[in-house]
């Protein structure tokens, strides 16, 4: 056994190439001391948008021509002098003049010093431009080079390669300015261009008036009663998943839990968004295959160096593009059928549409939107549904994957989760009230999302000039807000690489979000474009983790390939997350009765455990109350601090 930085034992077998906090001898870790160990060879210029999938993770820079590591170069002050070159060059002249005994030289030196100060002031307002060894950055997931460059160039810098350039932002105050205070000055830019083929004018890529209208229409669909009913469904899906895992356990097989979570999340989001049972946990069919083809294409395009699919004829000639067109057709046909079915049901049920409308026959978001009388084209509806499918699938699956990985590397923390789950749930069904009781499990997810934010980078484009401490970001700049850097910065976190779910304070304290941490912690973004599925996703993750922890103990399969990261829209493993699974004897107790929570009495009156929770402006005033916000931090925070 080795000991992690936070004093928690980690197994020696924990293959730690994924930036996790153990002191196991790792090849590459985003920590100063680890950089020297990487010896990968540089073969091409820094591939910012290069396809990363399938390449082993290496968080380090190769030693430069001068055989210096980045750490040594940072320590040497190479990147430190952000002053004026003119001022630096004229410094010796000034010194020489100052030593002139006649007085004339001294007067000139004084004058030169004044001009030097002006030059220095001007230089301070210029954005640092990443230079030099950028070409030496190896084939790593994109957020890792950005982390290294952040350490070299600081909280805002420009990254140029060829005709393209990006502004990389890694400061909470700047992130707040872009996402919240000055959000009106920014669009989704590149993201809209990349995702157009799959999401069209869905909520994630949409901007301006379309975004406003669609957000107002969709957010009310994720109301309290809906989320409460979804918790029930999460439990059923997770149980179904457990039954599948039992088979693997019996056969003594290790299981790729990344794949498992991807399927679980697909089954859940299909039911939640359009009441479609993919049942991908037990079988594959052409619709599932088509969905995965489209999802993989979205990831492929977000990391491809050039938009080759836009070349004339590409969609007909290139096999992967042809497959994508066919897959889109299958998905669109399926969605059209579901839309038609839902319209028919709405006509038949003739239920009055009330504020927290929830159809028993079909509680999905699609049904809500149709029942609300939302007059939109089928194309827009499809765009919205696809957006939620993509947004709610990959993200949650990735959060669960990396959190389970962290737990496997920190058995003592996994023990604490199991203990809590046994106490709260025993072997009974999970309910919405339990979300307030599973506090440590919630913290574990919070910490999992800090160490592995999904997505690790947020993308924006400046619609007009904006200023950051005197530095101008010009109109049309493409901006990367590095959530990874914010979450891993030692300026904002003690021992930032350590997996320490207790770091967020007492368990009955607030649930961390961007507001409680002043934009240092952004698992769901912030401001008016904050995730609308934050509460849904957090509950889904808690339920899945609780159900698994109650039944099994997980450890990394001894013969598994090393766990390493690769970039997609979210962080994937390079070779899967293979786990050995040991069944636990589920305690026969019924856990705490759900009504034990003070909230649940209220909940039973109002059908929602969140009913009594005051609304807290967690996102710059764009709150769910006005149809624009989302509330996980606020509602759970208030819930956690219950009497
Ligand atoms: C753990 C799971 C999830 C994570 C980590 C996550 C994260 C995020 C983040 C960081 C953003 C902001 C993106 C930006 O500012 O550019 C976002 C936006 C969004 N998310 Fe999520 N999300 C999750 C689950 C979900 C689910 C389950 C849904 C749907 C039910 C969803 C729907 C959306 C939508 C529609 C947006 C765009 C909102 C807008 O631009 O107005 N997300 N998500």
TrEMBL record:
PROSITE patterns: CYTOCHROME_P450
Keyword entries, A-Z: Heme, Iron, Metal-binding, Monooxygenase, Oxidoreductase
Cofactor(s) demanded: heme
Stretches the record annotates as Disordered: 1-22, 581-643
Name the record gives this protein: Cytochrome P450
Source superkingdom: Eukaryota
InterPro entries hit by this protein: Cyt_P450, Cyt_P450_CS, Cyt_P450_E_grp-I, Cyt_P450_sf, Cytochrome_P450_Monoox
Family: Belongs to the cytochrome P450 family.
Gene3D superfamilies tied to this protein: Cytochrome P450 (1.10.630.10)
Organism: Dunaliella tertiolecta (Green alga)
